[in-house]
Amino acid sequence: MNWPRLQAEIGTQTWFCDPSSPWQKGTVENTNRRARRWLPRKRDIRSMTDQDIKDISDRLNNTPRKCLGWKTPTEVFREKMMEEMR
Question: Higher confidence at residue 17 or residue 62?
């Protein structure tokens, strides 16, 4: 993996959870659980269209999250992008 280069290029820290420690990655576990609603383990994603994937992504990104103050990931991303443009 080339994470050290990525970290240097985007100027941010990376952090990896310890193996078998799901409590260290609450948001990831929560998002995985949400995604499983539309992507059960038995589903062959190779049969999905780009539009199918986009629809799932849109559902995930437009669902309010408690950890974001009940804003959606899309709203928070847009706010951060607007801050950068000022």
Answer: 62
